[in-house]
Amino acid sequence: MSTTTTPHAAAADALIALLPSQAPLTAVQADRSRAVGAVHAATVATFVGAESADLAVVLNDAEALAAAAGTDSPLVSAADVLRPALENAASVFGTGVLGEARIDDASALFADTDSRVFELTADGATAGWFAIRVRSTGTRGTAAPTTADARSVADKLGRINNVEMALTVEIGRTRMSVRDVLDLEPGAVIELDRSAGAPADILLNGRLIAHGEVVVVDQDYAVRITQILDVTEGLA
Predict the structure, then answer these.
(1) Residue 168 contacts by C-beta under 8 Å, 6 or more apart in sequence?
(2) pLDDT 10s digit of each residue in the chain, 236 long?
(3) Where in the sequence is the domain holding 214, given as residue range(s)?
(4) Same domain, 121 and 12
(5) Is there a domain that residue 145 lies in?
(6) Torsion angle of alpha carbons 68, 70, 76, 80, nearest 10°?
(7) Which phi and psi (to 5°) does residue 144 adopt?
(8) Residue 149 resides in a domain
(9) Contact 181, 75 (CB under 8 A)
(10) Is residue 17 a contact partner of residue 87, using CB atoms and an 8 Å limit?
(11) Distance of alpha carbon 97 from the chain centroid
């Protein structure tokens, strides 16, 4: 285990607790220059909360990843297998939302001077690498903005008025094993985690912003907003 108690080290320790490995893993902060030449593609994700963070992990043990996936199906990627470990690492920073885990070029993150890089070792050998870059969002513990500050923020936000964002309406969730997902066929019924008639969740770019009810308008589905959440409620 890491000997320091920084949030970065705590996240690394939380990560290795759920990483698939044939031997116990240890996370030790390392010189980023050692990882830059060894890491290109990695599983990356971004956590958004009171403190936000960019995370990237790569494991050298392909057999452990395959065993954790439990299937040769292309529907299950390394990002799917490693996401629970990334979620555990991100939980160190409190309430927030972890974005999509994906395979991407992480060389810039590992090379960034603001990142902390950890070597993951097993039986004395390098088993992988983990990089984390923490970014404070200023949603907690900040002074109230002045009128000038508010005007400046409004001016800046005006520049992105036409930026498109993904609005999602979610009526429920469930967790399924890979085996059950692969066994799905037309006519199968999937039970969700909420009762019929319960409010639907409205998410903006993956963040919960409101609750509503599903309605039909001119034979098309729509959602009527019943409650707008503030930032704290949305993150919770």
Answers:
(1) 202, 203, 204, 206
(2) 444 478 999 999 999 999 988 889 999 999 888 877 777 788 999 988 778 899 999 988 877 777 776 766 666 778 888 889 999 999 998 888 888 888 888 888 888 899 999 999 998 899 999 999 997 654 433 444 455 555 554 555 555 566 667 888 888 888 888 888 888 899 999 988 888 778 888 888 778 888 888 888 888 888 888 888 765 454 45
(3) 163-235
(4) yes
(5) no
(6) -20
(7) -65, 140
(8) no
(9) yes
(10) no
(11) 6
**Do 123 and 22 fall into the same domain?**
yes
Q: What is the DSSP string of 95-159?
A: SEEE---EEEE-HHHHH-TT-EEEEEEETTEEEEEEEEEEEE---SS-PPPPHHHHHHHHHHHHT
CA-CA distance, 54 to 36, in Å (whole number)? 16
Q: What does the block give as tokens for 50? A: 């009171």
Establish if 153 belongs to a structural domain. Answer: no
How do strand 96-98 and strand 167-170 relate by DSSP bridges?
unpaired
CB-based contacts of 104: which residues, under 8 Å, 6+ apart?
Answer: 41, 42, 44
Token code pair at residue 30: 């390392």
Pair of tokens at residue 231: 């930032």
CB 82 within 8 A of CB 106: no
